[in-house]
Amino acid sequence: MKKSKNEFWEWTKALVIAVLLAAVIRYFLFAPIVVDGLSMMPTLQDHDRMIVNKLSYKIGKPKRFDIIVFHAPEHKDYIKRVIGLPGDRIEYKNDTLYINGKAYKEPYLDEYKKQVIDGPLTDPFTLKEKIGRETVPKGQLFVMGDNRRFSKDSRHIGTIPMDKVIGKASIIYWPIKHIRIVK
């Protein structure tokens, strides 16, 4: 009787520790997210399941072209690509991204650019036209979806405060045929 009571207590302790450990990992380190919609195609597909690294920006700062998850003004979590960092001047012309006057290649858009026959993938704009400022404000990010024609992003909702960023999303774990590290 004493042995079975002791064994029950050991299993209970192990289960409680496992649940607490899982909660700490999910709340502070990593969280799953499901891609909802087509705004990040072709890079991410609707219903892809990803891991969000919450620790990534507690240690460092977002980098240009990182894919991040953030709390959007619509009380939803969005997944988009960082285009502009604080102090950047952003402009699009002739389907080319210019940051601080320098042209940047966006290889993740090449597949879509080849498919477009009726104009540019990304309509021309300046940051001033979109947010009323020449540069991305301090402590904010300018983000865009890879599916430029069908993405609700900083061109529509404005810049994103850094404190709204949940973390970096870079690993697709489901469906199995999509498993990969995303760049």
UniProtKB/TrEMBL annotation:
Subcellular location: Cell membrane; Membrane
Highest rank taxon of the organism: Bacteria
GO biological process: signal peptide processing
Record bears the keyword Acyltransferase: no
Catalytic machinery residues: S39, K80
Domain Peptidase S26: 9-174
Protein's recorded name: Signal peptidase I
